[in-house]
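Before the break, one more example. Copy the sequence into your notebook; we will annotate it together after we see the structure.
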Amino acid sequence: MPLEVMHLRGGAPMLRELERLEEDLLGDVCREVIEKWAESQTVDAKEKKEDEVQAIASMMEKQARIVVKPREVSQEERQRKAALLAQYANVTDEEDGEDEHDGSSATAVNTGSEKSLFRNTNVEDVLNARKLERELLRDEFQKKKEQDKLQREKDKLAKQERKEKEKKRTQKGERKR
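Here is what the structure looks like once it is written out:
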């Protein structure tokens, strides 16, 4: 029925009823949309959790497959390593002794009955650098000492010249009187 017809026959109550029905239908549709949305959210969350669990499980499986083989170390390598460790232990002992003896240079180090396989050149380099530095400081000190001596002599001569000038000036003053 058209609205005009309902209005003529006392359609105001009917119009209200139609509006109420529309509101009820609208409320039902809104509720249904919200329920469907909430269901989809829970399904998505469950799927995400399952995906995360699956990803973690696959990573753990990959890590479990990776097996580190224990490295086989030959007897010769063990001896070489032991010789190196012994050499460095002896070098540090000798360096301590050198500090007490005022630095004699170290070359190849003997470990027990064997000669060491390597030569520690770092100690020699450090000792040579210290020696060179001491020589430079000694030379600089000597130069400064000579310069100071020359300066003292110049000052002494300048003092004598001032005294002589003063004497001459006083003698001229006495002659004028």
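Residues 1-8, 102-114 have pLDDT under 50 and may be disordered. Helices lie at 3-8, 12-65, 75-100, 121-176. Try to locate both features in your own notes.
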